[in-house]
Amino acid sequence: MQGAYFAIGTNAAVTAYNAQGEDGSFTEVTVENNDPLTRLATELKQEQGAPWYYADFSAVRKDSNWGKLLSQTWSMTSLNVGVSILNTGRIVPEKAYDGMIVFDTVRRYFEYKGYDVNYVSNFTDVDDKIIKKAIEEGVSSDEISKRYIAECKKDMEGMNVKPATTHPLATEEIGGMIEMIGALIEKGYAYEKNGTVYFRTRKFPDYGKLSHKNLDDLRSGERSLLVTGEDEKEDPLDFVLWKPKKEGEPSWESPWSDGRPGWHIECSEMSKKYLGEQIDIHAGGEDLVFPHHENEIAQSEAANGKEFAKYWMHNAFLNIDNRKMSKSLGNFRTVREISEQFDLQVLRFFMLSAHYRSPLNFSADLMDASKTGLERIINAADHLKFLTGNAKAEKMTEEEADAYAKTEEYVKAFETAMEDDFNTADAVAAVFDLVKYSNTTANADSSREYLENLRSLLTKLTDVLGLIVERKEEMLDADIEKLIEERQAARKAKDFARADEIRGELLKKGIILKDTREGVQWKRA
Fold it and tell me: Among 216, 282, 393, 447, which residue is least crowded by beta carbons within 10 Å?
């Protein structure tokens, strides 16, 4: 690890360090604070001549064992993402779908590199919004939750988001939450008032280390950032761990009152149960940094006595036609609405077209461009499949072996992009370079082995991105098959007028023909 550089922070405030050895010692490198990370990375590579690493966890302390920390960066065994189910159906970056796509891709990349990933994505199946919705519809909260979870999983399948290793439900983990709250009370980090349990924020000295918020500033100068609560709190900054039930709400028995847990505690308890007291990566939308993730850190580290998460990943917000998406502006789109116009694979491709920490602008024009880009990749894979089926030679020639060896540079570019803070935009660019190379080197004279190797590599890289490039087999009905055969016979008989007439008939049925020297290819319009 000697000579390796890494940065912690955000684009606005970056500090770089030089790891001197495996013992974790380091020296600070002077870098302008306002340098964007991409420029910083280039400077470190060019001026210092060393690799660099980035962690979106700016609160890491300087006494951390950097050698150990960096060696563990690529041995991830856990990843935690939460889903608030009443946000499903909407493209809500801080809560649901683009985060699902991004972090599913992160998971896929680690698995591609050979690691076993314990991926936990919990469903918040009881909260104020769910209860309100249940009351409005006159049904139980459980019915509302199950309905939306089913819808969420349907959308996940459409976007090719792999099921998590575990999808715990908050309502099934209440007992563990009560135990954790009890432990926090015993340690003096929490207290009970009239059936409500609060966390003593000032008792935890590192509160604010992730969001860089100072408690005194929150208390005196920025009241809009205070965690809301009742007057009975010892301190307005204290937050709720358990609250008594209200009329018509679901509730559970506890030593303090019949009620339900606060939102923050559920994540701490489920992380501990399914991932252990310390996890490698915790992910979510940038709006969750404060107070949700900050409160998770306080609860978990106070209860467990160790650092909660080694790394944090936060994806940026989504804009609609260059305006922030919101109900008040009436500019939000549901995934179901988008699926009526675009395949959800196009949505996934679109989401990966920008870096996850950069705001992404959604528009119909950009989605059309994404559709075209994805189709280009699918067509390349489809063409390779067609050529393979008609290949005359089996084994690669020496020339083809040399040609295939050159694809390693595209694999390297892909992996370099993914290991540069999961830069999916550059990874997609590497895939396009591979597509171009494939289109220029594969032809009707290529061997089956060469064609299969190219197609296998393309599929392997796109699978990391969660993109399906295998075109669905579509059976033509008997009439269309008969017309294609008749057209072939007409061409053979040099009856080109009839052949053109049949092409027109097929086009009306949504079938586009392409005549190549390898044979006839078709696709749906």
Answer: 216
Q: For the chain, give every domain's residue range.
A: 4-70, 74-172+316-362, 173-276, 379-464, 478-524
Contact 73, 311 (CB under 8 A): yes
pLDDT tens per residue, range 32-57: 433 333 333 333 333 333 333 333 33
Residue 194: per-residue pLDDT? 95
CATH number of 173-276: 3.40.50.620
For residue 334, the tally of other CB atoms under 10 A from its CB is 14
The candidate with the shortest Cα–Cα distance to 457, out of 424, 442, 435, 428, is 435
CATH superfamily of 74-172+316-362: HUPs (3.40.50.620)
3 state DSSP class of 283? strand
Q: What is the 3-state secondary structure of 174-209?
A: HHHHHHHHHHHHHCCCEEEECCEEEECHHHCCCCCC
Q: Which of 7-16, 238-247, 452-461 has the lowest mean pLDDT?
A: 7-16
Q: 3.30.420, 1.20.58, 3.40.1800, 1.20.120: which CATH number matches 379-464?
A: 1.20.120
